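ok so i was messing around last nite and threw this chain in just to see what happens. nothing serious, just curious
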Amino acid sequence: MKLSGVSLFCLIGLVFVATACDDLNRFSYENYFCQPRQTALYEISVGKLKQGATANIQFASKLVQAEITLLTQDEIIIESEGLRLITNRQTGSTKIFIGNTYEKVSCVVDKFKM
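result:
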């Protein structure tokens, strides 16, 4: 089956339109700077915005690396042994679950894409 030039051009154009432009980013990160309270969470750093990637979580006394288990437009869930963070990607509001402790903190969102 032979395609004409116009048909081939439309087909290639459709492929480019169907793919997300976010996949063409060379570099992106999200940082969340938090107001420490009981759990002393200071910062969440996400270098690779994809499920299965590692995020750095800075507490007052230690740095923890945890896996991104869910990433949507609105929310990011990060988990490690005994730790679970649920962060709203627009507002920065973060729910922290450490063992039997629950806390909700406000964080300032810093996003960068290139």
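not much to say yet. Helices lie at 5-18.
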